Amino acid sequence: MVDHVFTDLTLAALYDRLNPWGPGDDFYLGLVREARSVLDIGCGTGRLLRRARAEGHRGRLMGLDPAPAMLVQARRAEPDVEWVLGDMRTRLWDGEFDLVVMTGHAFQELVGDEEIRSCLRGARAALEDGGRFVFETRNPDARAWERWVPERVYEITAGDGSPVRVWHEVQDGGLSGGRVRFTETYDCDGWPAPRVCRSVLRFLDRESLADRLADAGLTVTEQYGDWERGPVTPASPEIITVARPA
After folding, report:
1. Which pLDDT belongs to residue 3?
2. What CATH architecture does domain 5-139+204-245 belong to?
3. Digit-coded pLDDT (tens) for 103-157
């Protein structure tokens, strides 16, 4: 058993297969194309910045992630990006970027109040005046965790062609204290045993997000409920937030 998928090199290599490129990636790529310098917090395998560089982006691109296994994937695929191991406390930031992003619901992995505060203040410090911080969280009103059940099995193919089955199971009855605890299980016939990852995600509503951003010196300028920039409603799957320095 591993505590988190990103500490395991085998599972990190499966990440992009389990999470194929989609509308959210297109949304962020459009923002990156327009930016001169970009910091991707929680960049994972780095596919957003890798795609931007492959398309010809010549500005500064930095990917930051606390998981060494994920950055191994990033560095192998694109050495011409700054890949940094750590989180927003890794260094002092000084207005170096005109765009800071957190994709793939990475913001929800900040489960503690101090983690959130530190990350948002770091994002503010990393932004130049007039820059944008863009991230998304799952809308708690949509209750996505109710669909994370073992009966929904996803099958992906490993690099050697082996089929890998993946499923999720929520713990402790679902949402508790704004947090959802769940397991993510990976199983392959060629493995001696399944790999089980335990995770916790934080769910914040729009008001809580705005308050925490304001405390960090950021103000919400736009919010969308989906990747087509629709309004946030109780049924919207996402809360996509664009914030600027206050």
Report:
1. 37
2. 3-Layer(aba) Sandwich (3.40)
3. 999 999 999 999 999 999 999 999 999 999 999 999 999 999 999 999 999 999 9
Ramachandran angles phi, psi of 226, nearest 5°: -155, 175
**C-alpha dist (Å) from residue 226 to 24, 148, 237:** 9, 20, 7
Residues in the chain: 246
DSSP the chain: -BS-GGG-HHHHTTHHHHS---HHHHHHHHHHHH-SEEEEET-TT-HHHHHHHHTT--SEEEEEES-HHHHHHHHHH-SSSEEEES-TTSS---S-EEEEEE-TTGGGG--SHHHHHHHHHHHHHHEEEEEEEEEEEE-GGG-GGGG--TT--EEEE-TTS-EEEEEEEE-TTS-BTTEEEEEEEEE-TTSSS-EEEEEEEE---HHHHHHHHHHTTEEEEEEESSTT-PPP-TT-SEEEEEEEE-
Cα–Cα distance for residue pair 43/104, rounded to 1 Å: 9
Residue 86 backbone dihedrals phi, psi, to 5 degrees: 140, -165
Closest alpha carbon to 239 in 215, 201, 204, 199: 204
Q: Is the predicted pLDDT of residue 1 greater than 50, yes or no? A: no
By percentage, how much of the chain surpasses pLDDT 70? Answer: 97
Question: How confident is the model at residue 56, as a pLDDT?
Answer: 97
